[in-house]
Amino acid sequence: MKEHERMVELLAARDAAGLRALLIEHLMHKRDAVLELMKHGALQGHGKHSA
Fold it and tell me: In angstroms, rounded to a whole number, what is the distance separating the alpha carbons of residues 19 and 30?
């Protein structure tokens, strides 16, 4: 949640470059986490589109 707090701070400061960098880093971490879960089959049967 620290990243989310930092995002709010950057928004308040109108720091577009800082927010961009943080969002890219945040999304890369999320991507890596999802790929790791997929690799281990942990996502099967989860989500709105599962059958």
Answer: 16
DSSP state of 47: S
Cβ(4)–Cβ(22) under 8 Å? no
pLDDT tens track of the chain, all 51 residues? 798 999 999 999 999 999 999 999 999 999 999 999 999 887 776 665 554
CB 23 within 8 Å of CB 7: yes
Answering whether pTM is above 0.90, one says no
Q: Which two tokens stand for residue 29?
A: 């971490």
